[in-house]
Design a protein that fits this description.
This protein is mainly alpha-helical. The chain has 15 helices and no strands. Helix 2 packs across helix 3, helix 7 crosses helix 8 and helix 13 packs antiparallel against helix 15. The model has no long low-confidence stretch (mean pLDDT 91).
């Protein structure tokens, strides 16, 4: 990305003026730069050397990236502004900047920035403007789309077959918003990504209990077959004649439903209180 000399100059001037330095006084602090040299920086004629930028950053109690590019939000907005005529929402930028800060991704790590953007908006993968921007920045969709998990044995043996089955069920549906499997998966993954870590154990139990009610398992056998320790295919902790051929009366199923409903409500209370404690007592607000 071409540097905006005018904006760099304004940021250097803001540092100098915020500390009340005159041009000549500021120049002396930056390895004896002349008054005219400082004036040229501030007017966007040229940019200080790397050594002098580092000194200015120290004097301004900031960093070189801010001097060169502004805030992280300003930087990514300018970066994606090259994808004309596409425009991105403020929500997209807020999510992207939040993810970059959370993962401590630096300005110069272009591939990680675009990888994060793809995680927020997967549709960019097929966007020609996105490909064009990547190529102009010296990278490619293949580089920013690669994830280490693709080589993970557990992922390939367990998750890929399950995902493949779910996506195949909806391959004839054109409208992406009508693809419920896709929408539900994305919501669950997004939830896990944002969820307070202390609540994840409760969510794990909650999902187990909900699955018993949301599927036909509750009509097949009693909740002693709930897989409370490990996730299992089919939702049972073991398979025998009861799970393969069992049928319960509606009264038996209702009894378990009432019991599970109470457990779910109590677990929701725990998650709410845990999140409230984390939100109101955590000094870092994002």
């Amino acid at each position: 990305m071409e540097l905006d000399k005018k904006q760099i100059g304004l940021r250097i001037r803001s540092i100098r003026e915020s500390f009340g330095w005159k041009l000549e006084d500021f120049g002396e602090l930056v390895f004896e730069a002349s008054k005219g040299t400082v004036s040229n920086w501030e007017n966007g004629v040229n940019i200080p050397s790397k050594k002098r930028l580092e000194r200015i950053a120290i004097l301004g109690k900031t960093d070189v990236n801010w001097i060169l590019h502004g805030t992280l939000d300003e930087y990514v907005r300018r970066l994606f502004s090259y994808m004309k005529p596409l425009k991105f929402s403020d929500e997209f930028y807020e999510k992207l900047v939040g993810k970059l800060r959370e993962n401590k991704i630096k300005y110069e790590d272009i591939e990680a920035i675009f990888q994060s953007a793809l995680e927020i908006n997967p549709d960019l993968r097929d966007n020609t403007h996105f490909h064009y921007l990547l190529n102009n920045l010296g990278t490619s969709i293949e580089k920013v789309s690669y994830y280490d998990i693709e080589e993970d044995k557990h992922f390939r043996q367990v998750y890929l077959p399950m995902l493949s089955r779910l996506f195949k069920q909806e391959e004839e549906i054109d409208n992406p918003y009508d693809k419920n499997n896709d929408q539900i998966l994305r919501r669950i993954i997004d939830l896990l990504d944002r969820l307070n870590y202390d609540s994840k154990a409760n969510l794990n139990e909650l999902m187990t209990e909900l699955s018993w009610i949301l599927t036909k398992n509750i009509f097949i056998t009693d909740i002693t077959y709930l897989p409370t320790k490990y996730a299992s295919s089919g939702g049972f902790n073991k398979t025998d004649e009861n799970t393969m051929f069992g049928t319960r009366s509606i009264e038996e199923a209702k009894g378990d439903y009432v019991l599970l409903r109470e457990k779910i409500l109590k677990r929701m209370d725990k998650i709410f209180l845990s999140n409230a404690n984390d939100f109101y007592n955590n000094k870092k607000r994002y």
